[in-house]
């Protein structure tokens, strides 16, 4: 027992480090040194994460529980949505421009200014038709209905009251497909003339005389005046002197 005694101020276990960790007193509590080191490391890591999160807060970044920075609203590079509109090569080569200047691929028109040759008809084609080469294509003008008739002819007749050229009116009416509405041309012209001046009524009389036989027939004119006599009660509402005029 005397041999184990030593003049050193610490015992053998304390001098050699012992099996127990060194303790430090903080706020009256004894805490092992290893716990303090771990606490400092954790605190430093939290400060770093807090600093990074506050810096990237304006860009929609957030920090997960694992400490990994996550960006909201940004599609990951591996997401298929991010690759749909990406024209760059997957191998990392090229500048992302369309191939052949936009003239390559299926269903494209070709480069601007490109002139194509006339396509020759293949006689051996099963869809080939002998009458196809002799076809004559004409522009089809649909006949005017009651709704579009008045909207189309009213400006023409009103302009006629300004220039007084019956030939111009005749050419414009020939370009239209009046169909069964031919008899309505004199009806509309007389109705507009009743609301206008005496000179307009005289010009309308001349217009109907020039249109008869070219644009409208005598039968159409007779039908139109019969229609005017039937609509006379309604014309009186807008033009009280319509019966005398």
TrEMBL record:
For biological process, the GO terms are: negative regulation of DNA-templated transcription
Please report the stretch or stretches of sequence annotated as the MI domain: 148-245
> What is the scientific name of the source organism?
Nothocercus julius
Where, per UniProt, does this protein localize? Cytoplasm; Nucleus
Ranges of Gly residues compositional bias?
99-110
Basic residues bias spans: 43-52
SMART domains on file: MA3
One cellular-component annotation, GO: nucleus
Stored Gene3D superfamilies = 1.25.40.180
Chain spans, region Disordered: 1-111
Gene transcribed to yield this protein: Pdcd4_1
**Protein name according to UniProt:** Programmed cell death protein 4
Q: Which GO terms describe its molecular function?
A: RNA binding
Record's family? Answer: Belongs to the PDCD4 family.
| Entry annotated with the keyword Coiled coil | no
What keywords appear on the UniProt entry? Cytoplasm, Nucleus, Repeat, RNA-binding
A Pfam short name: MA3
